[in-house]
Amino acid sequence: MDRRIKIRHLQAFTEIVRRNSMKQAAKRMFLTQPAISRTLSELEEIVGAQLLTRDRGGIGLTPQGEFFLNYAQTSLSALEQGLAGIEQAGREGAMQLRVGALPSVAARLMPEAVSEVARIAAELRLTIADGSHGHLTGMLRAGQLDLVIGRLGEPETMRDLSFTQLYLEEVAVVVRPGHPILDDPDLRRIVDWPVIYPAPWAAIRPFVERMLITHQVPMPPRRIETVSGAFGRVHTRRSDAVWFISAGVVAREVAEGLLVRLPIATDLTEGPVGLMRRADAPESAASQIFVQAVRRSIELLGLSDRDSAAD
Fold it and tell me: Is the pTM higher than 0.70?
């Protein structure tokens, strides 16, 4: 966009059209008639086209003006909505948002998103719930949550919900530092040790099963089925367990060297992480601010379109 175009240019142009009068538009904007005429002339010079015709019959739109009018009105309307949202955010207790976060999101994305929300709208009160995909989407359908962030579930779990993809994430296979499997990190060797495996209701379980089938690895006979990050972090570091978990859950521990990610291909476990809402739910100012904070957090964390296997 040409940076010479100012809000006053768009306001003058749309107000003249709305009032069908240069004089009335100037009065509405507390300007003199020569001043508003000069503002319109500046806009026409910037866009390189005549936007309005002026004669005794009043104001008329040229074809270029008719085309430009819709965009000018839309821009001003979007700005007004943004200002209204910020004003609402400044009123004590005016905005609240109830968010559900699946384990990988709760551990990795949410802390950054909460910081961004505080920067944008400090008075926005967040209530955050974590849990399994089925539990959180059930709360969402019941109206107990406004949004859920996590992996896209199976079709039957997404009934009456919309999904907006944010990034892609893989499942990580992690062990404690010094684990014997690190000497020969072959996926087929996991059956030699206890395995922390996704529970039947976990969104990542079908992806893990597909990966094992592809690599001709049988279902681990010694397995604990859970997606509890709290349990997995402690038990994996204290034992020889091999843990299958969303990469976001253990990203910090892997970066700090507390856990080690096995250098095996996990492309088959990659799946979309996104925002889930009730399909019929209106978008509130609070949710708009939160989504803005989430998208900014994704940029800051470098997640973009996928979760790198190097995390």
Answer: no
- The first and second tokens of residue 25, run together, are 């538009």
pLDDT digits (tens, 9 = 90+) for 12-59: 999 999 888 989 999 989 999 999 999 999 999 999 999 999 877 778
Q: Which CATH number covers residue 212?
A: 3.40.190.10
Neighbours of 174 (CB within 10 A): 26
* 276 & 223 share domain: no
Contacts of 118 (CB under 8 A, 6+ apart): none
Three-point CA angle 83, 89, 92, nearest 5°: 140
Compute the distance between CA of residue 117 and CA of residue 84 in angstroms, rounded to an integer: 16
- Structural contact between residues 251 and 311, judged by C-beta atoms closer than 8 angstroms: yes
CA separation for the pair 49, 112 (Å, rounded): 46
Distance of CA 52 to the CA centre of its chain: 41
Q: Which residue has the tokens 């990034």?
A: 167
Q: To the nearest 10°, report the CA torsion of 222, 227, 229, 233.
A: 10
Reported as a single tens digit per residue, the pLDDT across 85-96 is 666 555 545 578
